[in-house]
Known about the structure:
Helix content: 25-40%
CATH architecture: 3-Layer(aba) Sandwich
CATH superfamily: Thiolase/Chalcone synthase
Largest sheet: 6 strands, mixed
Shape: elongated
Order of helices and strands: EEHHEHEHEHEHEE
Structural class: alpha/beta
Number of domains: 1
Amino acid sequence: xxxxxxxxxxxxxxxxxxxxxxxEIAQTFxxxxxxxxxxxxxxxxxxxxxxxxVILEPPGSVPRQSFYWPAGGPQDHGPTTAVRMQRYAEEALxxxxxxxxxxxxxxxxxxxxxTHLVTVSCTGFFAPGLDIGLIKRLGLPPTxxxxxxxxxxxxxxxxxxxxxxxxxxxxxAAVVLVCAVELCSLHFQYGCDPDxxxxxxxxADGAAALVGRSAAGGDEAWRMVAAGSYLMPDAEDGMx
Length: 240
């Protein structure tokens, strides 16, 4: 039996910035370690056009963001982890809730129909967690089964889909809501480390959600038919 995807949606922060302006902001994080003339080229070559971010002020504001201050020296690492996680707790739920609500609407299913909730994030945490917040925000049943896939990086949602597949395999009547939210702009790093610069240039903020159920009915638009995972030997450093 396979997983039918009967509702799918995404959500972006209300504020966005073009990549050229993002590169200009990123210049202020470099701590003066070396000439950064190549930074603009790096941002441009990502082919990212615009990026949504929860830390941006409305257009016309000066500065455009105040969460990060200009680097004050080699020992400046920007906001502490506690400050970043506090902002994550404030911003993650509204974004995730918007995507999840739209996915349910697209599936033409009420929140009461959801039997399982799978949440995904590798950019933050808080307690009570995102799953509890979504139950209250969306009006999901208090008996909904909950699973959080945390800190698994870019493939976290793939693992969430595999979990959703297992839920419907075990119970053909299950309706699974999967919701992923990442606030990467809360983790910009100061300095000129190449891996750091690439991450700063690529990743931004957003949420996505889907509603899945048994594909036995045959009227779904999309179907998950297979999934797999393979750990390459001695590849742990490949993430950089």
